[in-house]
Amino acid sequence: MKTKALAIEIPVSEDLKLREVSINDAPAIFSLIDTNREFLRKWLPFVDYSKAVSDTEAFIKSVTAEANTTDLVFAVLYQGQHVGVIGFKSIDLANLKLEIGYWLAENKQHNGIITRSCATLLRYAFEKMQMNRVQIKVGVSNKRSSSIPKKLHFTFEGMERDGELLANGQFHDLEVYSLLRREWERKADTAVL
């Protein structure tokens, strides 16, 4: 997966694109984390571990390493600016399944950026990667995040109890949503794009 010479770039719309992260994105991504720290830390455990650009560089090096076959991470670029991160994690090629994870700067919420980006990544996962199953996990009570798989016709499967350890030292439950290729093919015409 990491042997290609060029980074993957996926257009979403005229003003929105996804570009595979590179080390050059580290300062912009760290700046987003740092300026949105309080907003992001409620749901994302990595925020408190991102204390310097070097922490973001280490993350990017880990997900772009040639040996990594389980992650494919993109910078979300809206109107030419970094506004968040989205990507595939837990890629399981043997079972043709993966998970989509995402986060977005607080001041860019409510523009459909992540919903449109997820719809585009679904197409990429099912058509280019030939996946059979895509899942999204969101923290219970994270209404903004859980609205995305609902809009994209995912099925709510249940709760992953104590699924994630947050920065405050407390575990919280995760809602698990999934979409199968055959469902996506049937519902693609009605998906929010």
From TrEMBL:
Keywords: Acyltransferase, Transferase. InterPro entries: Acyl_CoA_acyltransferase, GNAT_dom, Ribosomal_N-acetyltransferase. This is GNAT family N-acetyltransferase. Residues 16-183 form the N-acetyltransferase domain. It comes from Pontibacter aydingkolensis. PROSITE patterns: GNAT. PANTHER family: RIBOSOMAL N-ACETYLTRANSFERASE YDAF-RELATED, RIBOSOMAL-PROTEIN-SERINE ACETYLTRANSFERASE. GO terms for molecular function: acyltransferase activity. Its EC number is 2.3.1.-.
